Amino acid sequence: MKNRFIRYAIFFFASLALFSCSNNEYEEDYNTNVDIAEGIPVITALASKPLPENLQCTMYIFWKSATDTENEYALKEIKILENTAQNKLKFMNNELENKTYRFLFVATPSSTKEIELVKSDENNLQIGDKWEDLMIRSFDPIVSADNYQGFVDKTGTEILNGKTINCTLSRLVGQIIFDIYKILKEGNTTVSQDVSLPHFTVLDRVYKIEIEYSDLTKGVVYNNDNEIIHQSLWNDSYKQTIEPKLYENEIPWFRNFKVNASQPVTNLTFSEEKNGSAHIKGIYCMPSNENLKIKMTFYYYDTTPLCENTEHIHSKYCYTYLDTYNNTQFLPSICGIAEHTHMNSCYKDGVLICTKEVHIHRVGCYDIDPVCGMNEYVYTSDCFTKKFIVLNLPKKDATPLSVIPNHYTLNTAKIRYDRIIDVGANFSFEFDTAWKNDNN
Known about the structure:
Blueprint: E1 17-20, E2 41-46, E3 55-65, E4 74-81, E5 88-92, H1 93-96, E6 99-109, E7 115-119, E8 134-138, E9 148-155, H2 156-160, E10 165-166, E11 170-171, E12 174-186, E13 189-192, E14 206-214, E15 217-222, E16 228-233, E17 238-242, E18 268-269, E19 278-285, E20 288-305, E21 320-322, E22 328-330, E23 347-348, E24 351-352, E25 384-393, E26 401-403, E27 407-415, E28 430-437
Parallel strand pairs: 12-27
Antiparallel strand pairs: 1-2, 1-10, 2-5, 3-4, 3-6, 6-9, 7-8, 8-15, 9-11, 12-13, 12-19, 14-17, 14-20, 15-16, 18-19, 20-25, 20-26, 21-22, 23-24, 27-28
């Protein structure tokens, strides 16, 4: 999947020399107040590229003796990197001798801080805290895409010898994606099937989608393999609401209830690969390890009106006369506009390409009374029962979902009908989960 979400190439950090030292960046202080026994200070400077203006990056410097285990890394210093190329670090030579350093970088939006590094018990960090006691905590159940982390290890000798410290930051969070489409069963396999006209998508008649996320991750830690796993969870669930725009180009539109792919809807697109499918963009959230639960509720208008009245709209068929040959003829309209309704030929791949104005002759197009002898009555939303169906991910008693850092979690619901509302009580969802790297 192509990366559609990152505003900046991922990233200025990719193979960026965050800190570098070279021979001409050594600063030797010959002031007589310097104790030579403490060594000569070595200055390291930020590479030429500054930080993006929308991010604040904090660097946490850990160190340990070369003979200590990895868990013995202890916090030495915290430095907030400025949006400039002039960030510098100072080491004394004796601090580099027989030492190993770990540089941890955590980046979050500068306008609103979304994540922070704390202890695994959620207390504030203190100098000397150990690597194994760290946790990256979010301030809210959902976060934006622009949260990153990464670390690199360097020995004191490598720093002293002027080796460059390269660190690639990767997105800390993952995004939930939903694909709903019609399938056809062929033996033991399923094949994507186009939605049959006159429907546009599997979401026809659906006017609202609520997605409730439970057991979202609050904090993550690095395990023994330095992989990111969840540590603590939020108690409250989060609800996302999406409201597809129903098809309104014809009046009365409640006879149609179609979701038109040409109408933009926040967080809702339609896959070009699977005609009529719904591609729903869920939230960005912290990583989960078989922990996340999702409930999708689809609210829709039923197909049968409750109204006792018969729907009737005065159209050109109500303005007719019989000619001398007893043939029905239409009375001339006064609007001066040619009739046009969008037919199948007006759409290409589910997208409206017709430039003609939709117009159907109504009462206002005539200066005489209709001859049909009927009263006009138009269905409204109140004439139709509102119903809903629920899709639980995962299914009951199944393993909860995972969210992998810097990946999309793609949840696919396959139905054997043209519309999701036709599934009804006899659920036939085939559910798959896949992960795709956010860099691709």
